[in-house]
Amino acid sequence: MALQSSVSFQSILGTSHSEDVLDVFIDYVCPFSAKMARSIEKNLKPLISGGGKYDGKVRVIIRLHPQPWHATSTHTHESVVAVGQVEPSAFWPYTLDLFEHQEEYYDIPSSKLTALEIRAKLVELASKHVPANKVPLLEDLLAFKTTPNGGTGVTDNLKYNSELFVHYMRCRIP
């Protein structure tokens, strides 16, 4: 499926001219998604980039799918979208780092944190991957909008990912 330009950072390997596309749906609080991301880095990346066997033939797109039964899932996904918007090249390194810290965002460890505290903690982790002068942009993107239920500066791009998942499933379920 196509990838709108505002989330082009989600294309982590290959090019738009690649013959085939591998869509990988992940949730940043899912242990199985962490296994997939590590496998992509260890096993697929050498095959698809840098002259590997499938270089130029396969494109890998990370599709964000926050699972509602993971209480902090939306927050972690928001932070990844914010990083991608601020520093696109940091999307995949931050993704891998977030998976290394994912247990901190599991239900029980994060149960006494507010949404603002979770976002601040995510910005702190993300700040290792973006230039210091761009950290305020991350904070701004993750701040609530002025309307009572308006979301954040990344809500629309996160909605795009969720809507895409629904469309993707409709096309594949008979």
Automatic annotation (TrEMBL):
Q: Under what name is this protein listed?
A: Thioredoxin-like fold domain-containing protein
Organism this protein belongs to = Clathrus columnatus
Upper lineage is: Eukaryota, Fungi, Dikarya, Basidiomycota, Agaricomycotina
Q: Membrane-spanning regions, if any? A: none
Source organism superkingdom: Eukaryota
